[in-house]
Amino acid sequence: MRSIVFLLVILPGFLFGQLTVEPIPKPSHKITKNSRTQSQDPLSLPFWDDFSFTQDFPSDSLWQDSDNVRISEDVGIAPPSINVASFDGLTATGISYSANSDSRGETDVLTSCPILLGSLGISDEVYLSFFYQFGGAGDVPEENQGDSIVLEFLAVTPDTTFWEQVWPTNSGELNRTGVFVQNIVRLDDDSYFSDEFQFRFRSFGRQSGLWDTWNVDYVYMNEGRNGSDLSFPDRNVTSKLSSPFQPYTSVPSNFFSTDLINRSMFARNNLDIINLGDPQAVSFDVVINASSYLNGSENVFPVRRIEDDLNVSSFPGVPDTVTTEESLLDSTYFQNPYDSLFIQYTLEYESGDEISSNHGGINFRINDTTQTSFILKNYYAYDDGTAEFGAGFQTSSNQLAYQFTIPEGLSDSLTGLDVHFPYIGTDPTGKALALTVWTDNNGEPGDRLYQEDATAVRTDSIDQFFHYEFNRPIILSGTFYVGYRQRFEGDLRIGLDRNTNSIDKIFTNTSGFWEKENDLQTGSLMIRPVFGTFTGVINSVDEELKETIRPYPNPTQGFFKLPVLDDIKILNLLGKEVNFDLVQNESGSLVDISNLSDGVYLLVVKKGNRSFSYRVIKQ
């Protein structure tokens, strides 16, 4: 059986096929928040946050000193509403709490702003309820290592102020099934009823990275409740609309036809437990904004609104999926030529929710709207443009291939690849690989059509792709594969999007034969084949130039010759530059690597606007 390091299971270091998967650190900067998140005034009841109206960081109007907790839509599995508060072993800057990989203790903390409870008492029946989830789509905590999450209340007495743990009462009380579970806790001590009252969630686990994940959602605190008050008049959306180009999120415009358009889907939930059996007719509207571009000119299409009545007799009490009755795209978008087409969906879920006087005026419609965008341009994509994890190899010569299929009867020139190399612990820039294109052989990679040596490049922006222009175009039709062969020993990972799923299109070759990557749970690699007009040097000229540059002798005992070049670099198998001596004159270059240990190195040279790579063997 194959083995792959999959960090979404109990222990980091589990192997399934030599393909390693690691979480990507949180954003290293804080985003500008909207006006709702700026107030620091003490709060009055009710307190409610389902995290649907914030992104990346908790709302400053409800929480304080809590930026290490990540607000995300991709870490929770079947959440009560869209977005969850996720706890792990990283700070908001992406730095671990401890450099010691074995260090365990307190990790993230989510602390409420002060809440005015001085005028209330135990008899006012104040309760705090919340949902929590063990692991979710993140790393699974380990019970035998003391990993846990706790809820604490701030107690104020005439003599002192202290935090008191009120839940769980013992470790066995924590639900570790991986589903969201709702819990409710009563404020049952006089020391809690002050105008300085606060509550907080604290997680405990490994402090050395994005480990031991707990998710919290739908936090609600109010007076006049009881221990069974777990129902809310809230029917909401828990995901964005899916791509109309399934299984892709983007398709090259040259390959697109209206036959490829699929109906879209979204996930929803119902927290109105009391009225589950009653008829609840709901509907949704989708507003579509679209613009096409041709030679720099924009054509804005009229805004479309599609109404869809679900007409359900009984709304389900668990998250389910809704499929639109028709395609959301208008055929007029595709009637005229375009270089690219931008499409934006705004889903407005008409659930009948309203501002609830029984819940202190909470507006339960705030989580009924989502927005997502899609682009048709010159590339294929399975991913949504954001990476939550990174997947790749740790061993030289391992190969990864990603399957794509061009519609029957069509062909075009593959001119390059867009790849996202995330930063996970170390900078991937400079690490050696060979970009590769394969034919199809009965559903798996076949003959090699193209290969060129390259080095990984990490861009400055989060989730940004780096474009590799091939040395020559490759005419493709039908099914093909793109990917790479690793050229060094050590970690190299590609961005992995957990919100989409194309695992069945991923193949690995670690032992001389290809295997489909069936062991990963879900995800899409951030590798995109790019088609269109080739802008580089014509193939025959390019190959001829590469041959004239080739180092000689190779293998070498310490010296080799090259023609006059604009730039020369030598990398070891870890992708790091090494020092060498160079003597250069009008007739050529003499490279001295006699100081280097015997082994294989990557020579990267530049001549004019072209770059070439060669393997050099020192013996």
Descriptors for this entry?
single chain, 619 residues, six-stranded antiparallel beta sheet, 2% helix, disordered N terminus, 1 helix, mainly beta
Summarize it.
The chain has 1 helix and 40 strands.
Q: What's the helix and strand layout?
A:
Blueprint: E1 20-23, E2 47-49, E3 63-64, E4 70-72, E5 84-87, E6 104-112, E7 127-134, E8 148-156, E9 161-167, E10 181-186, E11 199-206, E12 214-222, E13 235-237, E14 265-270, E15 283-294, E16 297-300, E17 304-309, E18 320-323, E19 340-350, E20 355-356, E21 362-363, E22 369-376, E23 389-393, E24 399-405, E25 411-419, E26 432-440, E27 445-455, E28 466-477, E29 479-486, E30 492-497, E31 506-509, E32 515-516, E33 524-525, E34 527-531, H1 539-549, E35 559-562, E36 567-571, E37 581-585, E38 588-592, E39 599-607, E40 610-618
In words, what does this structure look like?
This protein is mainly beta. Helices cover 2% and strands 40% of the residues. It has 1 helix and 40 strands. The strands form 10 sheets. Strands 2, 4, 5, 7, 10 and 12 form a 6-stranded antiparallel beta sheet that branches. A 6-stranded antiparallel beta sheet has the order 27-26-29-24-31-32, with no helix packed on it. A 5-stranded antiparallel beta sheet has the order 3-6-11-8-9, with no helix packed on it. Residues 1-17, 28-39 and 536-541 have low confidence and may be disordered.
